[in-house]
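Sanity check

After download, print the first record. It should look like this:
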Amino acid sequence: MRRSVNAGKKRVQLSLAAQPGSQVFVAGTFNDWDPLKKSLKDDGSGIFKTTMFVAPGRYEYKFVVDGQWCLDPECSEWAPNPHGSLNSVLIVE
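Expected structure tokens:
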């Protein structure tokens, strides 16, 4: 019997408003902070979205918009990072 790659993981959607034509990615503890691994797609109105499947837990992340790292303005929890700035926090239950 084959197990699904997403077994036990939860579906999470992230979104960010950005200028049309921007390149938007999300990087965090869920993808080893790879700034080019997970892209967001423009829905046609300047809202960039992505869906991921992640195991329950606490994750830190940032968006990368045209090479610039930024917080999620819709996130209500942040954590300090070793670079002297903040990361957004995602709790998956």
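If your output differs, re-run the checksum step. Summary of this record's structure: The beta strands are 10-17, 24-28, 38-42, 47-54, 57-65, 68-70, 78-80, 86-92.
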